[in-house]
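pls design
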C-alpha cells in the first residue's frame, strides 16, 4: 500500500475534527468530576464524551478517505457508539431510580413535593 499526500484543506479539516473531539471529551471529563450527584454526572459521558469520540472517529474516517480506503471500521465503531451510549445511559438511570438514589437537583417550579 502506498501513502498518498494529504491535501492541505483535508489536513485542516482532520485537525479541526480532532481538536473539536478532544474539547468535547475534555468537557465531558470535567463534567464527570464536577457534577455533584449521579444523575447530573450521567449527562457528561453520555453527551459530551460521545460527541468527542464521534469527532475523533470522523477525523479518522476522513484520514482514511484521503488514503483511498473506505474506513469500514470507523463507520461500525461510530454506529455502535451512537446506538449503545443512549441505551446504557437509560438503563443506568432506571437502575438509579429503582434504587432511589438521591438527587441534588431542585424540583421544577410548581411541582409539589412527594
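designed seq:
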Amino acid at each position: 500500500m502506498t501513502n498518498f499526500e494529504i491535501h492541505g484543506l483535508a489536513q485542516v479539516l482532520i485537525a479541526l475534527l480532532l481538536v473539536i473531539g478532544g474539547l468535547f471529551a475534555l468537557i465531558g471529563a470535567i463534567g464527570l468530576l464536577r457534577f455533584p450527584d449521579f444523575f447530573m454526572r450521567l449527562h457528561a459521558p453520555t453527551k459530551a464524551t460521545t460527541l468527542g469520540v464521534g469527532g475523533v472517529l470522523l477525523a479518522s474516517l476522513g484520514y482514511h478517505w484521503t488514503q483511498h480506503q473506505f474506513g469500514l471500521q470507523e463507520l461500525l465503531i461510530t454506529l455502535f457508539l451512537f446506538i449503545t451510549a443512549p441505551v446504557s445511559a437509560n438503563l443506568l438511570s432506571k437502575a438509579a431510580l429503582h434504587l432511589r438514589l438521591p438527587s441534588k437537583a431542585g424540583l421544577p417550579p410548581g411541582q409539589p413535593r412527594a
